[in-house]
Amino acid sequence: MFAKALFNWLCTSPLLTKPGAVIGLLLMLFVTFFNPFGLRESSEQSTETWLLRMFAPSYPAQAQADVVVVLIDDQALARMQASWPLRYNEQARLLRQLLSYQPKSVFVDVLFTQRRYDGGSTVSLQRVLSSADEQGIPLILADYRDAEGRSQMLTELRALARTAQVNWSGFGERYPLLLVPGESDSRTPALQMYQQGCVDEACALEPFAEPLLVRWGYWSDGRMSRFVDLSGCGVRGQRSNAMQLLSMLGTDSVRSQRDANAVERPQPCPYTRTLYANQLRDPRVAEVLRGKHVLLGAHIRGIPDLVMSPVQGQLPGVYWHAMALDNLLTQGREYWRSAPEVISGVSISDALEMGLVLVAGLVALWIPAKPITHKGRLLRWMSHYRFWFIALSLCAIGASVVLALWWHIAPLDWLGLILVIGLFYAYLGEPRLAAWWEQRIGKLNKKGDAGCVKPY
User: Which residues cross the membrane (predicted)?
Assistant: First the structure.
């Protein structure tokens, strides 16, 4: 009796009567959990990049005036009548000019790993480093370390200055704040500058153990037009954040190869305040540099040191450190980060994505072959695929917003979820759509309003 009842149940079960829904559910769960060929990872990265671009116009400007990049580029070198790499005494002069404006901290994103025998003595550079220490200005030099963790910086410079490692691996698109958990010597440039002069609880390392998801700002600071050319830049106040967001949404929605560059780089100017090395001779820059965090970097033609911003496109690598510092100054310990794991290898975002996929599949197994026409309005709505597509899409978007804005966690892949669930439901709902279309054509033919006939 039991075997017969089980057989009858299996014969009428959705597992057998809806093989398309079962196969679709299994495929979605497989892709979500196992990430074959990196499909889910690619989708997540695309969603994250797009969302960072959309959030950029509303990024708070509270720390924009506190971070300044001083850039050494080809044009600045020409105006300084110098060439790259700069001689040691030229670099010392540059740093001396910078320190004369009394910045809050300085990070030099230039490597001193190989001794230049044509660059003169490093004595003048050593004197500047000692002077910075005497003035109480934290001056941090970029440090490159080999696979064994040994510093490659010139010994005499490493002994006189603070250092911060700038080469790392294993963090993907995230900006690590601590390369070794719990070790203050492993702090990267942004965290060192953020914690300069900190005491007691402000120096705690535990809140910064997780790598930072760098948020990029959009609007350039119009007050910098006195020093740099901002023509063609999106300057704060030109239009509202909402209008800029709508403009970017419109551009992204009709994306094509023809306008890919415009989509990738809608804002040609960096968010961070920027001066050029030759401008340090101008005493007017004192108002920009005094009491600020300053990052000195280089952008030399033929020497690649670039980072990809979802807002500005390719930028000199020093801007990555600058925006990471800006994030810390703006958000403190509540900076955006990857979702924590609930079990080994499965994060909160992964669990939410798999839960939504599972709900989508179970709903597909439940929805009847024909829409329910009685038993109440709500049940009639729930018997349609479009109801559940809209509901699950709103759930995915809502969960992503909550994770990002309240829990400060990287948004989940709601774009990928909407696409997958939409295609899944479109496939399952095709017989209903075909039946509705055939019924509609039949009515039109009876009225003589259309001459549509079946092709068979």
Answer: 21-39, 387-409, 415-437
Tokens 């000195």 sit at which residue? Answer: 296
Residue 134, beta-bridge partner list = none
Taking alpha carbons only, the member of 208, 199, 153, 215 closest to residue 180 is 208
To which H or E segment does residue 30 belong? helix 19-34
Residue 7 has pLDDT above 50, yes or no: no
User: Among 272, 226, 230, 275, which Cα is nearest to 97's?
Assistant: 275
State how far the Cα of 248 lies from the Cα of 97, in Å rounded to an integer. 41
Are 421 and 360 a contacting pair, CB within 8 Å?
yes
Domain residue ranges in the chain: 2-34+340-447, 60-334
Q: Residue 321 in contact with residue 109, Cβ under 8 Å?
A: yes
pLDDT beyond 80 at 151 = yes
**Whole-number Cα distances in Å, 409 to 180, 207, 232, 310, 371:** 21, 14, 33, 18, 39
For 305, other C-beta atoms within 10 Å of its C-beta total: 17
Tokens of 4: 């017969």
Give yes or no for residue 442 having a pLDDT over 70.
no
| pLDDT number for residue 248 | 83
Find the helix or strand (DSSP H, E) in which 142 lies: strand 139-143
pLDDT-derived band at 387 (thresholds 50, 70, 90) equals confident
How many residues can be counted in the chain? Answer: 456
pLDDT of 68 strictly over 90: yes
Task: Report which of 322, 334, 331 is spatially closest to residue 66, judged by C-alpha positions.
Answer: 322
A 10 A CB-CB count for 46 gives 13
Over the range 106-132, which residues count as b (16 or more CB within 10 Å of their CB) and which as e? bbbbbbbeeeeeebeebebbbebbebb
Answer for the pair 31, 257: CB distance below 8 angstroms, yes or no. no
Mean pLDDT of 272-290: 96
pTM assigned to the model:
0.85
Strand partners, 316: 306
d(CA 234, CA 357): 40
Extract the tokens encoding 107: 């990070």
Between CA 177 and CA 136 the distance in angstroms is: 23
Q: Are 277 and 290 in contact (CB under 8 A)?
A: no
Which residues, other chains included, contact 182 with Cβ-Cβ below 8 Å and sequence gap of 6+?
205, 206, 209
Q: Which amino acid is at 163?
A: T
Q: What is the dihedral of CA 37, 339, 209, 306, to 10 degrees?
A: 50
